[in-house]
Recover the amino acids of this structure.
């Protein structure tokens, strides 16, 4: 296990001299000693450098690939988006979500499409009568909500509206998480907020 977590070169050192990242690796080694079918880790990437974070991600995914169930409790949304396959979100003791990462993000994103065209006025005219909202962006593009990118593209083709970009807007996992848990924040005072806890499976 020491070799597996990359601590072979410091195996004779006292644990008290370990850095936070080395301690995290040692904790994982200890957790794996009994070859458990289910592994529960709290913020396992805490204190790791970028190489260590990638190593941890690959290790946990490989353990899951062996048929083990790996629960990871974390507030690092960017890392969870790369590591997790399934999310369980709990806020104030209540289950808020139990779904895949892709579905979680898709629901938070809704039907929003970024569109670039040299003729915004013609596009707006083509969309008149449809139940959509059109928001102008600072760079000249528009964000259309309420219609899929496929439907917008087909409509633009029919009306001979030239499109330079047609990109579905997807929220990040962090944005989706904050959107979904906005009513489950424990503290709302000042700049400090305590969000619901995410558990990645």
């Amino acid at each position: 296990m020491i070799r597996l977590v990359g601590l072979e070169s410091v195996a004779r050192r006292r644990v008290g001299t370990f850095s936070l990242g080395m301690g995290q690796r040692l904790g994982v080694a200890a957790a794996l000693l009994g070859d458990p079918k289910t592994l529960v880790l709290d913020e396992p990437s805490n204190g790791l450098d970028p190489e260590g974070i990638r190593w941890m991600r690959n290790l946990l995914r490989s353990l899951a690939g062996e048929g083990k169930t790996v629960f990871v409790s974390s507030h690092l949304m960017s890392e969870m988006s790369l590591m997790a396959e399934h999310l369980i979100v709990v806020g104030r003791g209540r289950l808020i979500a139990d779904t895949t990462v892709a579905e979680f993000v898709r629901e938070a994103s809704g039907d929003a499409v970024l569109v670039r065209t040299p003729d915004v006025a013609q596009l707006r005219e083509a969309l008149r009568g449809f139940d959509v909202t059109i928001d102008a962006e600072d760079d000249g593009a528009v964000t259309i909500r309420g219609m899929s990118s496929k439907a917008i593209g087909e409509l633009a083709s029919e009306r001979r509206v030239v499109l330079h970009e047609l990109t579905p807007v997807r929220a990040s996992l962090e944005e989706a998480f904050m959107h979904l848990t906005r009513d489950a924040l424990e503290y709302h005072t000042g700049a400090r907020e305590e969000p619901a806890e995410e558990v990645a499976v």
Observations:
- The chain has seven helices and nine strands.
- The mean pLDDT is 84.
- The first strand starts at residue 38 and ends at 42.
- The CA atoms of residues 7 and 22 lie 7 Å apart.
